[in-house]
Amino acid sequence: MLAGTRRVAAPTLGFSFVLANAAPALAHGFGPTYDIPIPLWLYLYGAAAAVVLAFVPLALYSRKTPDAAYRYPRFDLFGVPLLRRLLTSRLLVGGLRVLSVVLFFVVVISGLVGLQSGFNIAPTFVWITWWVGFSFFTALVGNLWPLVNPWSVLFDWAEGLARRLGFRDKLVLGESYPGTLGIWPAVGLYLVFVWFENVFSGSYVPRNIAFFALGYSLITLYAMAFFGKEAWLRHGEAFSVLFSLLGRFAPTEVRVKNPGVCRGCDGCEHGRCVNCYECFRRADPDERELNLRPPAVGLGLPEEALPGVAAFVILVLAGVTFDGLLETPLWLEIVRLTPVTQTLGVILLPLLFFGIYLGFVELSRIFGGGGEVGFRQFAAAFAFSLVPIAIAYQMAHYYTYLLIQGQMIISMISDPLGWGWNLFGTAGFDPSYGIVGASFVWYSQVALIVVGHVIAVYLAHSISLRLVRDPGRAFRSQLPMLVLMVLYTITSLWILAQPIVK
Amino acid sequence: MRRAAIVVLVVVLVLGGLFFLLRPDTPDGGPQDRTFDVSIKDGEMSPGEISVNQDDTVTLRVSTDESTELHVHGYDVEQEVEPGTEAEIDFEADLTGRFEIEAHESENELGVLQVRPR
């Protein structure tokens, strides 16, 4: 339906919750896949490569010092006067924030009053451009979400307006956020999002997207007013938590030179302030750094891990896996033979993953001699090392969607509502399908997954050195993690090798 | 340094060797003419999946229980089909990948065309 040819029809109004007109092929938020399953030999090859390469970081870096996590090359972009002026210019920064809010309202309005079947910008923008495109951008370039998050921008505007009108401090109720809750609210909200994306059969219907966006806006704005904006963005706003996780993988970081700014922040390790967008925002402009750094090092940093972090990471992993699993014959059989439904699956799979993960964490602690480091700390620290595998799988699974379906946004931006407009003269744009051939897709998918796996193994290695200190025990403690990573990587490859069923 | 070089060399040799060991030969013979008898009934195509190799010339002989316009995605092949008469759709499968075959009006997916690379 996404790539369907363009038709102009009269707008339909009415506010029923639309379920029925979602075509069966669009049971989840995306259009049809253009990838064919990777052949068996390539799957076996990828699996073998995952096993062989898992030992390379061990062989190469086993004598590294435990504090190496902090010492990586950095280049401060703000140190270049021209770049500094460009990247901090009000035009760019303010422009991006305004653009983000405009796009948010375009999606909501198109969803509410635009054409419901066929040409409508809401599904393509939300599922392809934002969900796939923006998360790739965050992982590969850097995390812009704290800057452009439309709810955060709207809240800032509302606060500014209230101040101008004289309602000082009335917007924030100032309840203090219960620290023991950690990021569990974000875990819950993200689970609902994964359900909406993968299970809810109307996730593709523009009006449902608008309703979900509005509902989520209510929750977010209210919670920001209730607990304070920063507290909610850090603990409860699912996408802020997600993008900051992906941003740790990115080759850029924000850093505050004087860590005194971080005092009282529960996300920064005392004495260092990296990847913390709230502290970055509070800091004096001269204290801010925007650094280039090697990719993925942000996941190995010993920042304070809030309660629920491991669960969130595992949920992200399980979510991307579930998405692929839904299209496999195995899932069809499970649904046929057991009482497991899609909704039950979206809850059970993360629990299963979490159980397996915690089991391996315990093994890892036993292998490393247990002792001084607590189970919780182990579980939270190692969770970050799995993020590259999730990113790699997500990219392998979705990059062709972005390349092919993503082109639809060019025509849709000219006619967001499907009312036959041609605002920018691009409404007639026809996507081209032949950009990537199937064999290139196969090789790149396997390469992505194997590379993500190697990065993950390397991270697990430096994390275990940091936790266990003694190189010999660290070596033993990461063996269970290594097995877990090989298993997960082989599962990812296996899913890509499965025939696609509806 | 020496150790790193040895590790990298061994890994390259093992993975390179494995690649050539596992990689199958390309399908023999050049492009072929492939003809499929396809029937559409109750909004579903049978067979539901048509699998060909790249550059094959594909002919679909379509019979249907209701008149519709058949659309092969990506190839932008469109053909009116009517009950009672057999329609023929010809095209060369030059794009690889998985493409929906749909009924144009309802945009209902009837089946898929799978084109494997050579």
CATH classification class of chain B: Mainly Beta
Widest sheet, order of strands of chain A: 1-3-2
Determine Rg of chain B (CA atoms, Å): 21 Å
CATH superfamily (homologous) name of chain B = Cupredoxins -  blue copper proteins
For the biggest sheet of chain A, the summary is:
3 strands, antiparallel
Query: How many strands, which pairing sense, and closed or not: the largest β-sheet of chain B?
Result: 5 strands, mixed
Mean pLDDT of chain B: 86
What's the order of the H and E elements of chain B?
A: HEEEEEEEEE
Count, helices of chain B:
1
What can be said about this structure in brief?
The complex is a heterodimer of chains A (502) and B (118). With 502 residues, chain A is mainly α.
Would you spell out the secondary-structure blueprint of this structure?
The complex is a heterodimer of chains A (502) and B (118).
Chain A: H1 40-54, H2 56-61, E1 75-76, H3 81-87, H4 90-113, H5 121-140, H6 145-148, H7 150-165, H8 184-198, H9 206-227, H10 229-235, H11 238-249, E2 252-256, H12 277-282, E3 288-292, H13 309-325, H14 329-337, H15 342-367, H16 375-385, H17 387-404, H18 408-412, H19 438-468, H20 471-497
Antiparallel strand pairs in A: 1-3, 2-3
Helix pairs in contact in A: 1-19, 1-20, 4-5, 4-7, 4-9, 5-11, 5-17, 8-13, 8-15, 9-10, 13-15, 13-16, 13-17, 15-16, 15-20, 16-19, 17-19, 19-20
Chain B: H1 2-22, E1 33-41, E2 44-46, E3 49-53, E4 57-64, E5 68-72, E6 77-81, E7 87-92, E8 97-103, E9 108-116
Parallel strand pairs in B: 1-4, 3-9
Antiparallel strand pairs in B: 1-2, 4-7, 5-6, 5-8, 8-9
